[in-house]
Amino acid sequence: MKILNSFGENDDEKVDFRKEARNLFNKLAKLETAILIVFWEEILERFNVVNKKVQSPGLDIGEGNKLIVSLKEFVKNIRQQSDQKLKEYEEKAKKLSTSVGTDYSDINKRRITLKFSDKSTDKVSVNCAEKFKRDTLNVALDKMIMDLNNRSQAYETYRKKFKFLMDLQDKNQEHIDLESVRNIIDYYPNDVDEHLVNECIQLKSYLLQSKTESYTSCSEIFWQIYEKKLVDVFPNCYTILKIFLTMPITSCEAERSFSRMSYIENKYRTTMSNYRLNHLSVLSINCDLTKDLQCDDQIKEFAAQKCRKVAL
Questions:
Q1: What's the CA gap between 222 and 207, in Å, rounded?
Q2: Which residue would you say has higher pLDDT here, 103 or 209?
């Protein structure tokens, strides 16, 4: 703000530039702007660490859903204590800079005339702080709560579908939900078979006997099966754990690396379909792996099929 103020008072600068600098300074000096800076810093700090965690490897949908639900409760808590939080934001905002105003932009109370069906009127006084909380802070908080709730419901749907995996990792639960096991068999008929039911029952008994070891997540169960070479004993459980653990938790789907797209989607490939562009992008991003691939046999086979020479 000091830099903007110096630009606005510098006679050597152009008039338009000085005017724009003063306008930006006046906007930043408003108490409302400073409050929003404090508000979003508190909100985005929590969102940032949670988003990083849900994108970390080894985290399953169950744990990701817990983080999203806890984040939603954090936002709800701010919403329920909006009066108290607004006072805290005001105190912190005034300490950001000496240039920040001590009052809201509209220091005068507004007079709102309400018209009723019987043609009578009533005037209501609206405090500036109350108006800012109602029209700005609460609107943003309600929108975040709604979006987090929608995201949590999507994860909860998959968590219920794999409920028997939650029962496996819960040592307080002696039995597993066999109905969810049968539903998974019907949902993935090409990956698992009906032996999954018996495997889950035996695996649950095996985990309960392992009192010296802790299995608090599906990833720990998966690695124990792999490291103890029990894949042949529980092949279907091993497969369904792989499916569950490789389900993405992030909100991005089919996201492309635009730094690579500049190399891929040039003027010669403007009519290329998304299917091919996606695969070309993957090959380009993983170029360190594709360079080691030996494709001589495939190239020769392709050239032989496309050969236009006719034997005489």
A1: 12
A2: 209
